[in-house]
Specification:
By secondary structure, the chain is of the alpha/beta class. Helices cover about 30% and strands about 15% of the residues.
C-alpha cells in the first residue's frame, strides 16, 4: 500500500515567483484561439490517409475507406480540452464560507489522458484539496477542470501542476494540493499483490492520534475485515533537501552514543519503521536502490522514539501491520516547517522526481514478493 498524504497546505507564493512554465496566460484560456490558423478537416483526414500508407496498409480497401474521418472525429473528442477554457469552469463561485476553516477535498476523480511524448493513453485518479478564503466552487467543477486539462497532450507532472495552478490563480485559496494516482508507472509491473493508493484526511490536530484520524479509521477497518497487508508506505514530507554540513538534526530520544550512525547532511530520504517492520524496510530498500541512485537512510526504531509516530504509519502499527514512513524528516531538517516561508520554491523538484522513481521501485519489489497471496495488499 502506498499512502499519499495531503499535508498542511502552504501559503500562496507571490505572483512574481510563479515558474515561467506555469504562466496563467498559457493554460487558463482555451489553448486554441478562434483566429488561430489550423489545417482543415480535409487536410487532417488526408494526414491520417498518409499514416495508413506509412504503416503498410492500403487506405483504399473497403474497411479503411472511412477510417480517416473516424480518426479525426475521435481526435475532436480526445483533445477537446484545447477548445475549452479552464477559467470559465471556475468562474462561478459561492461566497458562503463564513466559519469554515478546513480544506475542501474531492477524491477519486477518474481521468484518461494522452502522453505528449508518444500520444499513448495513461489514466488514473486525481484528489484535489484547497483551503478557501472567501470563495468556494461547486465540487463538480473540480472534476470538470481535471477533464479539460486531461483532454490535452500531457505528462503526469504537467497535469498535476496545471490543475493546482489554475485553482490557485482563480480561487486564490490559502493553499492547494493535488495528488495524481496514475497507474502508468506501474502498469507493466504485473504485481502479484494488490497495490492500493490511499489519501487520508484529518491527519492534523484536532484529529491527530485520535480515533477519528483518517488513517486510524482506515487501518481499523482493514483489521476488522481481516486484510493481510504486507506493508504500508507513508509518503510524508519528501521535498526538502540540504547538502550543507550539520543541516540534519537527530531526534532527541536517540542516545548520544548512537549519533555517529546518523547522517549529518539533510540530503537523503529516510525510510523509518518500528521494530516489527524490519523485513518490510529491507525489501523496500532493495527495490528502491535498484531503481535509482539516491541516498536512502533505512532504520527501524522503538516506538518510544516519539518522532517516528508523527504520521499515518503509526495508525497501521497500532493495528499490528508493518509500515514505513518515507520522509525528508520535516522539522528535523526544514527550517520552514509550518512557517509562512514554507512555500513551493523551497522544494527540490529534481530530487523529488528521483524519490518518486525509487518509491515505485520499492513498491514493485514488495508487490512481487513471494509471500502468501490470499486477501493480500
Amino acid at each position: 500500500m502506498v499512502d499519499a498524504l495531503i499535508k498542511s497546505l502552504t501559503p500562496r507564493k507571490a505572483p512574481d515567483a510563479r515558474p515561467a512554465e506555469l504562466d496563467p496566460s498559457e493554460f487558463l484560456a482555451a489553448a486554441v484561439r478562434a483566429d488561430q490558423p489550423r489545417p482543415s478537416r480535409a487536410e487532417a483526414e488526408h494526414a491520417v490517409h498518409t499514416l495508413l500508407s506509412y504503416i503498410g496498409e492500403n487506405p483504399h480497401r473497403e474497411g479503411l475507406l472511412d477510417t480517416p474521418r473516424r480518426v479525426v472525429e475521435a481526435f475532436d473528442e480526445l483533445y477537446q480540452g484545447y477548445h475549452q477554457c479552464p477559467a470559465e469552469v471556475l468562474d462561478r463561485t459561492f461566497g458562503e464560507t463564513a466559519g469554515y476553516d478546513d480544506f475542501v477535498l474531492v477524491r477519486d476523480i477518474e481521468f484518461t489522458s494522452q502522453c505528449e511524448h508518444h500520444m499513448m493513453p495513461f489514466y488514473g485518479k486525481a484528489h484535489i484539496a484547497y483551503t478557501p478564503v472567501e470563495r468556494v466552487v461547486g465540487l463538480s467543477k473540480l472534476a470538470r477542470l481535471t477533464d479539460i486539462f486531461a483532454r490535452r497532450l500531457q505528462t503526469q507532472e504537467h497535469l498535476t501542476a496545471q490543475i493546482a495552478a489554475a485553482i490557485d490563480e482563480i480561487l486564490k485559496p490559502r493553499g492547494v494540493a493535488v495528488l495524481i494516482e496514475a497507474a502508468r508507472l506501474l502498469f507493466n509491473s504485473q504485481p502479484r499483490r494488490t497495490i492500493r493508493f490511499v489519501a487520508f484526511s484529518c491527519e492534523e490536530p484536532p484529529y491527530f492520534h485520535c480515533d477519528e484520524m483518517g488513517s486510524q479509521v482506515y487501518a481499523r477497518l482493514c483489521r476488522e475485515r481481516g486484510d493481510h497487508i504486507v506493508g504500508m508506505l507513508c509518503l510524508e514530507m519528501v521535498g526538502y533537501y540540504n547538502d550543507a554540513p550539520n543541516s540534519q538534526q537527530i531526534p532527541p530520544a536517540i542516545p548520544k552514543f548512537l549519533h555517529w550512525a546518523f547522517p549529518k547532511r539533510g540530503n537523503f530520504l529516510a525510510a523509518v519503521g518500528n521494530l516489527r517492520s524490519v523485513k518490510l524496510n529491507w525489501r523496500f530498500r532493495r527495490g528502491f536502490k535498484r531503481a535509482v541512485r539516491f541516498p536512502l537512510f533505512s532504520i527501524c526504531l522503538p516506538e518510544a522514539v516519539n518522532e517516528i509516530r508523527f504520521s499515518d504509519n503509526s495508525s497501521f502499527w497500532d493495528q499490528g501491520y508493518p509500515a514505513l514512513m518515507l520522509t525528508d524528516t520535516s522539522f528535523l531538517r526544514n527550517p520552514h516547517y509550518h512557517e509562512a516561508t514554507d512555500t513551493p520554491d523551497t522544494l527540490d523538484y529534481e530530487r523529488m522526481a528521483a524519490v518518486t522513481l525509487g518509491v515505485i521501485g520499492g513498491v514493485t519489489k514488495l508487490a512481487r514478493a513471494n509471500l502468501p497471496r490470499s486477501r493480500s495488499s
